[in-house]
Amino acid sequence: MATNGSSDTTFPSPADAGHSITQKGFKITTRKLPILKATPIEVMTSRLGITPPEMIFGDNLVAIEHPASGWGINFNAFDALDLVDKTGESMLKVAYSKEWQKNREKVHEGIKEVVKPFDWSYTTSYNGTSLSKNHKFEPSSEPIPLELLRRPDPILFFDEVMLYEDELADNGITMLSCKLRVMPARLLLLCRLFMRLDDVVFRIRDTRVYIEFETGEVIKEYVAKEDDFATVQRKLAITREDVPALMRDPNKLSELLPIVDKSLECLKLK
What we know:
This protein is 19% helix and 35% strand. With 270 residues, it is an alpha+beta fold.
Protein backbone atom coordinates (compact mmCIF):
# COMPACT_ATOMS: atom_id res chain seq x y z
CA MET A 1 0.00 0.00 0.00
CA ALA A 2 1.44 3.32 -1.04
CA THR A 3 1.84 6.17 1.35
CA ASN A 4 -1.56 7.77 1.15
CA GLY A 5 -1.24 11.27 2.56
CA SER A 6 -0.47 14.53 0.82
CA SER A 7 2.29 16.86 1.93
CA ASP A 8 0.83 20.17 0.67
CA THR A 9 -1.25 21.01 3.73
CA THR A 10 -0.89 23.63 6.43
CA PHE A 11 -1.89 21.10 9.09
CA PRO A 12 -0.02 20.68 11.30
CA SER A 13 1.12 24.29 11.43
CA PRO A 14 4.74 25.14 12.23
CA ALA A 15 3.70 26.49 15.62
CA ASP A 16 6.37 24.64 17.55
CA ALA A 17 9.56 22.90 16.47
CA GLY A 18 8.99 19.99 18.86
CA HIS A 19 11.66 17.60 20.06
CA SER A 20 14.21 16.06 17.70
CA ILE A 21 17.03 13.57 17.66
CA THR A 22 19.43 12.85 14.80
CA GLN A 23 20.84 9.35 14.55
CA LYS A 24 23.15 8.23 11.75
CA GLY A 25 21.77 10.67 9.22
CA PHE A 26 18.09 10.32 10.18
CA LYS A 27 16.30 13.19 11.91
CA ILE A 28 13.35 12.13 14.07
CA THR A 29 10.94 14.78 15.36
CA THR A 30 7.85 14.68 17.57
CA ARG A 31 5.61 17.62 18.41
CA LYS A 32 2.87 17.69 21.04
CA LEU A 33 0.62 20.71 21.50
CA PRO A 34 -2.84 21.28 23.04
CA ILE A 35 -6.05 20.45 21.20
CA LEU A 36 -7.09 22.94 18.55
CA LYS A 37 -9.26 25.90 19.53
CA ALA A 38 -12.43 27.11 17.80
CA THR A 39 -10.94 29.09 14.91
CA PRO A 40 -8.46 26.42 13.75
CA ILE A 41 -11.20 23.79 14.07
CA GLU A 42 -13.46 25.87 11.84
CA VAL A 43 -10.69 26.15 9.26
CA MET A 44 -10.00 22.42 9.42
CA THR A 45 -13.72 21.62 9.13
CA SER A 46 -13.96 23.76 6.00
CA ARG A 47 -10.92 22.17 4.39
CA LEU A 48 -11.80 18.59 5.30
CA GLY A 49 -15.47 18.85 4.47
CA ILE A 50 -16.36 16.86 7.59
CA THR A 51 -16.67 17.62 11.29
CA PRO A 52 -13.43 16.77 13.12
CA PRO A 53 -13.33 14.54 16.23
CA GLU A 54 -14.03 15.88 19.72
CA MET A 55 -10.33 16.02 20.58
CA ILE A 56 -8.30 17.08 17.56
CA PHE A 57 -4.57 17.64 17.97
CA GLY A 58 -4.06 19.36 14.63
CA ASP A 59 -0.59 20.67 15.43
CA ASN A 60 0.80 17.35 16.65
CA LEU A 61 3.31 15.56 14.47
CA VAL A 62 5.71 12.66 14.15
CA ALA A 63 8.28 13.03 11.37
CA ILE A 64 11.23 11.01 10.10
CA GLU A 65 13.60 12.64 7.62
CA HIS A 66 16.78 11.62 5.81
CA PRO A 67 18.23 14.95 4.63
CA ALA A 68 21.02 13.40 2.54
CA SER A 69 18.55 11.67 0.23
CA GLY A 70 15.63 14.08 0.61
CA TRP A 71 13.33 11.29 1.83
CA GLY A 72 10.89 11.75 4.66
CA ILE A 73 7.57 10.65 6.08
CA ASN A 74 5.32 12.19 8.71
CA PHE A 75 2.11 11.41 10.54
CA ASN A 76 -0.44 14.14 11.25
CA ALA A 77 -4.14 14.43 12.03
CA PHE A 78 -5.27 16.44 9.00
CA ASP A 79 -4.02 13.99 6.39
CA ALA A 80 -5.37 11.06 8.41
CA LEU A 81 -8.85 12.61 8.61
CA ASP A 82 -8.74 13.54 4.94
CA LEU A 83 -8.90 9.80 4.18
CA VAL A 84 -12.05 9.22 6.25
CA ASP A 85 -14.93 8.23 3.97
CA LYS A 86 -16.86 11.42 3.19
CA THR A 87 -19.57 9.82 1.06
CA GLY A 88 -21.44 8.11 3.88
CA GLU A 89 -21.03 4.73 2.16
CA SER A 90 -18.89 3.40 5.01
CA MET A 91 -20.92 5.05 7.75
CA LEU A 92 -22.01 2.71 10.51
CA LYS A 93 -25.78 2.68 10.15
CA VAL A 94 -26.76 2.29 13.79
CA ALA A 95 -28.91 4.24 16.21
CA TYR A 96 -25.83 5.91 17.69
CA SER A 97 -25.41 8.02 14.54
CA LYS A 98 -28.22 10.41 15.53
CA GLU A 99 -26.85 10.61 19.07
CA TRP A 100 -23.45 11.48 17.65
CA GLN A 101 -24.86 14.35 15.59
CA LYS A 102 -26.68 15.83 18.59
CA ASN A 103 -23.57 15.46 20.73
CA ARG A 104 -21.36 17.09 18.08
CA GLU A 105 -23.59 20.14 17.90
CA LYS A 106 -22.92 20.69 21.61
CA VAL A 107 -19.19 19.98 21.41
CA HIS A 108 -18.57 22.53 18.66
CA GLU A 109 -21.24 25.03 19.69
CA GLY A 110 -20.55 28.40 18.10
CA ILE A 111 -18.61 26.94 15.19
CA LYS A 112 -20.25 27.27 11.79
CA GLU A 113 -20.43 23.78 10.34
CA VAL A 114 -22.67 21.42 8.44
CA VAL A 115 -23.01 17.84 9.68
CA LYS A 116 -23.41 15.69 6.60
CA PRO A 117 -23.18 11.93 6.10
CA PHE A 118 -19.67 10.50 6.55
CA ASP A 119 -17.94 7.74 8.45
CA TRP A 120 -18.47 9.21 11.91
CA SER A 121 -16.28 6.48 13.46
CA TYR A 122 -13.31 8.32 11.86
CA THR A 123 -11.87 5.05 10.55
CA THR A 124 -8.92 5.81 8.28
CA SER A 125 -6.48 3.72 6.28
CA TYR A 126 -3.86 6.47 6.65
CA ASN A 127 -0.32 5.12 6.63
CA GLY A 128 1.72 8.28 6.57
CA THR A 129 2.39 11.38 4.48
CA SER A 130 5.24 11.19 2.01
CA LEU A 131 7.68 14.10 2.02
CA SER A 132 9.49 13.01 -1.15
CA LYS A 133 8.39 12.34 -4.72
CA ASN A 134 11.73 10.75 -5.66
CA HIS A 135 11.52 7.80 -3.29
CA LYS A 136 8.58 5.43 -3.51
CA PHE A 137 7.81 2.32 -1.53
CA GLU A 138 7.69 -0.92 -3.50
CA PRO A 139 5.79 -4.10 -2.57
CA SER A 140 7.94 -6.48 -0.54
CA SER A 141 7.83 -9.87 1.12
CA GLU A 142 10.51 -9.02 3.68
CA PRO A 143 8.94 -8.65 7.14
CA ILE A 144 10.07 -6.35 9.91
CA PRO A 145 12.92 -8.19 11.71
CA LEU A 146 11.33 -8.74 15.11
CA GLU A 147 14.41 -10.56 16.41
CA LEU A 148 16.42 -7.33 16.13
CA LEU A 149 13.72 -5.37 17.93
CA ARG A 150 13.76 -7.87 20.79
CA ARG A 151 17.40 -7.11 21.56
CA PRO A 152 17.95 -5.23 24.84
CA ASP A 153 19.35 -2.18 23.03
CA PRO A 154 19.28 1.16 24.83
CA ILE A 155 16.40 3.48 23.95
CA LEU A 156 17.83 6.79 22.80
CA PHE A 157 14.46 8.42 22.24
CA PHE A 158 10.85 7.46 22.96
CA ASP A 159 7.63 9.37 22.54
CA GLU A 160 3.89 8.87 22.15
CA VAL A 161 1.82 11.41 20.23
CA MET A 162 -1.98 11.61 20.10
CA LEU A 163 -3.47 12.82 16.81
CA TYR A 164 -7.19 12.61 17.51
CA GLU A 165 -9.77 11.02 19.80
CA ASP A 166 -13.55 10.80 19.91
CA GLU A 167 -15.87 8.97 22.32
CA LEU A 168 -18.55 8.38 19.66
CA ALA A 169 -21.35 9.96 21.67
CA ASP A 170 -20.32 7.98 24.78
CA ASN A 171 -20.83 4.71 22.92
CA GLY A 172 -17.21 3.73 22.39
CA ILE A 173 -13.97 5.33 21.33
CA THR A 174 -11.87 6.14 18.30
CA MET A 175 -8.28 7.25 18.67
CA LEU A 176 -5.32 7.68 16.36
CA SER A 177 -1.89 7.85 17.97
CA CYS A 178 1.78 7.24 17.25
CA LYS A 179 4.52 5.59 19.30
CA LEU A 180 8.17 5.89 18.39
CA ARG A 181 11.34 4.40 19.79
CA VAL A 182 14.84 5.04 18.52
CA MET A 183 17.71 2.66 19.26
CA PRO A 184 21.38 3.11 18.27
CA ALA A 185 21.06 1.01 15.09
CA ARG A 186 17.36 1.23 14.17
CA LEU A 187 13.95 2.72 14.90
CA LEU A 188 10.35 1.57 15.00
CA LEU A 189 7.26 3.74 14.64
CA LEU A 190 3.72 2.50 15.23
CA CYS A 191 0.75 4.58 14.09
CA ARG A 192 -2.43 2.94 15.41
CA LEU A 193 -6.11 3.60 14.89
CA PHE A 194 -8.20 1.93 17.58
CA MET A 195 -11.98 2.00 17.32
CA ARG A 196 -14.58 0.37 19.56
CA LEU A 197 -18.26 0.96 18.96
CA ASP A 198 -20.15 -0.74 21.78
CA ASP A 199 -22.35 -3.64 20.68
CA VAL A 200 -21.21 -3.19 17.07
CA VAL A 201 -17.53 -3.58 16.13
CA PHE A 202 -13.84 -3.43 17.08
CA ARG A 203 -11.25 -2.11 14.60
CA ILE A 204 -7.48 -1.72 14.64
CA ARG A 205 -5.43 -0.21 11.82
CA ASP A 206 -1.67 -0.44 12.40
CA THR A 207 1.10 1.13 10.35
CA ARG A 208 4.65 0.24 11.37
CA VAL A 209 7.72 1.94 9.94
CA TYR A 210 11.03 0.21 10.60
CA ILE A 211 14.38 1.73 9.64
CA GLU A 212 17.81 0.11 9.76
CA PHE A 213 20.15 3.10 9.94
CA GLU A 214 23.32 1.48 8.56
CA THR A 215 21.76 0.12 5.37
CA GLY A 216 19.13 2.83 4.91
CA GLU A 217 16.45 0.16 4.55
CA VAL A 218 12.92 1.31 5.34
CA ILE A 219 10.14 -1.27 5.81
CA LYS A 220 6.52 -0.22 6.10
CA GLU A 221 3.85 -2.65 7.23
CA TYR A 222 0.10 -1.96 7.24
CA VAL A 223 -2.25 -4.34 9.06
CA ALA A 224 -6.01 -3.92 9.43
CA LYS A 225 -7.88 -6.02 11.98
CA GLU A 226 -11.60 -6.14 12.69
CA ASP A 227 -14.32 -8.24 14.34
CA ASP A 228 -17.87 -7.79 15.53
CA PHE A 229 -18.43 -6.82 19.15
CA ALA A 230 -20.24 -9.99 20.24
CA THR A 231 -17.51 -12.29 18.92
CA VAL A 232 -14.77 -10.37 20.72
CA GLN A 233 -16.85 -10.29 23.90
CA ARG A 234 -17.13 -14.10 23.84
CA LYS A 235 -13.38 -14.47 23.35
CA LEU A 236 -12.67 -12.15 26.25
CA ALA A 237 -15.15 -13.90 28.55
CA ILE A 238 -13.14 -17.13 28.53
CA THR A 239 -9.95 -15.35 29.61
CA ARG A 240 -11.33 -14.86 33.15
CA GLU A 241 -9.72 -11.45 33.19
CA ASP A 242 -11.28 -8.01 33.64
CA VAL A 243 -13.35 -7.86 30.43
CA PRO A 244 -14.26 -4.13 30.59
CA ALA A 245 -10.58 -3.30 31.03
CA LEU A 246 -9.56 -5.55 28.14
CA MET A 247 -12.09 -3.82 25.88
CA ARG A 248 -10.13 -0.61 26.39
CA ASP A 249 -6.75 -2.24 25.74
CA PRO A 250 -5.82 -2.23 22.03
CA ASN A 251 -2.67 -4.26 22.70
CA LYS A 252 -4.70 -7.15 24.13
CA LEU A 253 -7.43 -6.80 21.52
CA SER A 254 -4.90 -6.87 18.70
CA GLU A 255 -4.09 -10.46 19.66
CA LEU A 256 -7.75 -11.46 19.23
CA LEU A 257 -8.89 -9.60 16.13
CA PRO A 258 -8.52 -11.34 12.75
CA ILE A 259 -6.56 -9.65 9.95
CA VAL A 260 -8.75 -8.25 7.16
CA ASP A 261 -6.03 -6.46 5.17
CA LYS A 262 -2.24 -6.44 5.14
CA SER A 263 0.59 -5.04 3.03
CA LEU A 264 4.37 -4.87 3.16
CA GLU A 265 6.52 -2.29 1.39
CA CYS A 266 10.15 -1.25 1.46
CA LEU A 267 12.65 1.19 0.02
CA LYS A 268 16.41 1.71 0.34
CA LEU A 269 18.00 5.09 0.78
CA LYS A 270 21.65 4.02 0.52
